[in-house]
Amino acid sequence: MGESGGGGGCCPPMDLMRSEPMQLVQLIVPMESAHLTVSYLGDLGLVQFKDLNSEKSPFQRTYAAQIKRCGEMARKIRFFKDQMSKAGVLAKDLVEKENDIDLDDVEVRLGELEAELVEINANNDKLQRSYNELMEYKLVLQKAGDFFSSAHRSATAQQTEAESPRAGADLLESPLLQEEKIDSTKQVKLGFLTGLVPREKSMVFERILFRATRGNIFTRQSVIEEPVIDPNSGEKAEKNVFVVFFSGERAKSKILKICEAFGANRYPFSEDLGKQAQMITEVSGRLTELKTTIDAGLGQRNILLETIGSKFELWNLKVRKEKAIYHTLNMLSLDVTKKCLVAEGWSPVFASKEIQDALERAAVDSNSQVGSIFQVLRTKELPPTYFRTNKFTSAIQDIVDAYGVAKYQEANPGVFTIVTFPFLFAVMFGDWGHGICLLLATMYLIVREKKLASQKLGDIMEMAFGGRYVIMMMSLFSIYTGFIYNEFFSIALPLFAPSAYDCRDASCSEATTIGLIKVRDTYPFGLDPVWHGSRSELPFLNSLKMKMSILLGVSQMNLGIIMSFFNAIFFKSKVNIWFQFVPQMIFLNSLFGYLSALIIIKWCTGSQADLYHVMIYMFLSPTDELGENQLFPHQKTVQLVLLFLALVSVPCMLLPKPFILKKQHEARHQGESYAPLEETDESLHVETNGGGSHGHEEFEFSEIFVHQLIHTIEFVLGAVSNTASYLRLWALSLAHSELSSVFYEKVLLLAWGYNNVLILIVGILVFVFATVGVLLVMETLSAFLHALRLHWVEFQNKFYEGDGYKFAPFTFILTGNEDE
Amino acid sequence: MGFLVTTLIFIVVGIIAALCARICCNKGPSTNLLHLTLVMTATVCCWMMWAIVYIAQMNPLIVPILSETE
């Protein structure tokens, strides 16, 4: 519940540092220009409307009918899209901006087109079904014809055999009417049915027919080689042609029912050969006719879909826009006179002129006699936070917002994060070979920015594309730290000067036991190349990187505390300066700032003092003599003073602020102490809801005290734990360099040692895949994550509150991308 | 000596970068201040890292002991 101080006196304003000043505006719009006004404000995209009708249900609102209309039109458009994608027709991209299409015209046209399309589809389905049935009939005619003709042949063959007895091989196919040959007097009238049955059911079908008719039937089946399109389901199915011979009406009815149950389609068939041939030609003729009709129908449908496709995007956009406009209009409240609508919303102060222009244009374009009224309301509500970002800064701002949106007008950590985040990433990633690979990858994304922005990318590519500028910064800093750590795919190169170390004597006999000595000046830029691959590399590098992490960490934390100072100045809160900023600075710097100073002094003087010992005994026995751990004169006195300051600053952080706030609150509400007694008692315990802008501010002392206690404990304990947390900079950079060195030595050099081209090629491939997969992808993500954590927790908990809400203006730009 | 020279070089590079930023993207005082802040932060970060590594090697306590193979 801070009052908005309204501008810091100390520093000039900086872009992106604080939210744009926002104001609550009220627009009074006459009914006839309401639609156009909202449309123009949507184009402008700088007003966030408040819902003034929140207690009404969606059906009670003014424009519910219009929304239903738009929903109906959206449904038709989705139906068209479905049909178009099924037929493989693409919607043409939106090229011209047609502003003046009327919603009613679109509605009528959509209705007509939908009816036409539905009719064409139904006709097509019917024709297709007939076509499939005829195809099946043709197959039945062919196959059944084969049965009968082969049986006929074998029957005549049997007859000739009976007449001229001779020993001959029996035909594999026994004649169908064998019984007739044996006993021609008992001629039973046989009926038959022909049809198609699905192959997987064919055995069951036969068996059930057999059982149902007590074995008094005879079936023959023949397999159809290719799958056939079933007329009922429209899908391909494997089928068999069957012929069933039965006698009697009861058997026939049973067989009919069984055929229906199995979904076996029956087709008429005549025994006469001549008629068969005639049927086959007739069916073939009808098939070709149907085919042409169906093709014509499909052609017509495609033409219809093309016409739809040419206007599809236009209508789609229009319907979505209208729907959004009506939703917004539903949020406006109706004035008592029912002649105008009242809108309330947040907008940035700089946009006042543009909003007023839009209102005027809408009034003119809608030919209304009365103009709209624009006025600014005063309120104590917390405005939304709005940062004006460009494509470069929006990625970082999103990262910061992911943790929490900045409270209105508090300092935005994003400003420094733009640089420190890639920098800390690079400290963990340092290798200029890998940095160059990362840079190439991201330059590809940046160069093809325009083209990739309009395409629909997969989820992962979308994230990588959105963060392309961040990744570019990360890669540039990585190249820099790669030069500092002197690692190029883990090879160290003496690029700037010869190494500073050399043998102690001409024979170099002690190089592997005692080591080299420093003969020349310090290597000017970065790590001396002689360290790489030496036996004492790790002790030296670990010590260097750990101390570097501490130094960087203490710097970043100091920056965080200084940001809280800026916040205190901006919000004009003296309490926060003297009883939060100052004690915090003193505490952090008297302990960890002192440690940083000791590190630098030890490096500069080359002393052999043990810093762990110094720090720990500073607390345990501060009055002891330092002996060989003395780094500078009067160190003991300095340490005692710093310890005292640190101990004094803790109660300074804890105690004064709650009491001072209480006194300030009492001073502010001096005049209200004359309210009746009951009310004063209640007001101290009542919860205020966020919407009450004229509510009585409550002050619960115990709550404030506990809050301050928690804050103090968090800071004091956090000072130690956060400083230690920065050691992850050391840990990850060690992991990166070790992995890189393993891949280089154990893969590439090993493959090189064999002097075999094939092994070399395999080795190079493995090296490339391992580098890309493990180092460029996994290590990047890992270092990204840890750098992010360092920012979100260690940096931001020194000053950031992050409990605001983001400015979400009403705009049409997003509706192009939603698939609603 | 080498330390001071290189520190001066960093300062000069920082100033040049700030001037370049001012020349090529001059978009009003608050934006200019943002660009200046970014350039300064980047320069300070880079200098700090270089300085740490340089100072650590000025008076080393450990010397490199070469490994057996070469």
UniProtKB/TrEMBL annotation, chain A:
It is a multi-pass membrane protein. GO terms for cellular component: vacuolar proton-transporting V-type ATPase, V0 domain. GO terms for biological process: vacuolar acidification. It holds the Pfam family V_ATPase_I. Keywords: Coiled coil, Hydrogen ion transport, Ion transport, Membrane, Transmembrane, Transmembrane helix, Transport. Residues 103-137 form a coiled coil. It is found in: Membrane. Its main location: membrane. Essential component of the vacuolar proton pump (V-ATPase), a multimeric enzyme that catalyzes the translocation of protons across the membranes. Required for assembly and activity of the V-ATPase. This is V-type proton ATPase subunit a. It comes from Microthlaspi erraticum. The lineage of its organism: Eukaryota, Viridiplantae, Streptophyta, Embryophyta, Tracheophyta.
Automatic annotation (TrEMBL), chain B:
InterPro entries: ATPase_V0-cplx_e1/e2_su. GO terms for molecular function: proton-transporting ATPase activity, rotational mechanism. Pfam families: ATP_synt_H (PF05493). It is found in: Endomembrane system. It is a multi-pass membrane protein. Coiled coil: none annotated. The chain crosses the membrane at residues 36-56. Residues 1-20 form the signal peptide. Keywords: Hydrogen ion transport, Ion transport, Membrane, Signal, Transmembrane, Transmembrane helix, Transport. GO terms for cellular component: endomembrane system; proton-transporting V-type ATPase, V0 domain. Belongs to the V-ATPase e1/e2 subunit family. This is V-type proton ATPase subunit. The lineage of its organism: Eukaryota, Viridiplantae, Streptophyta, Embryophyta, Tracheophyta.
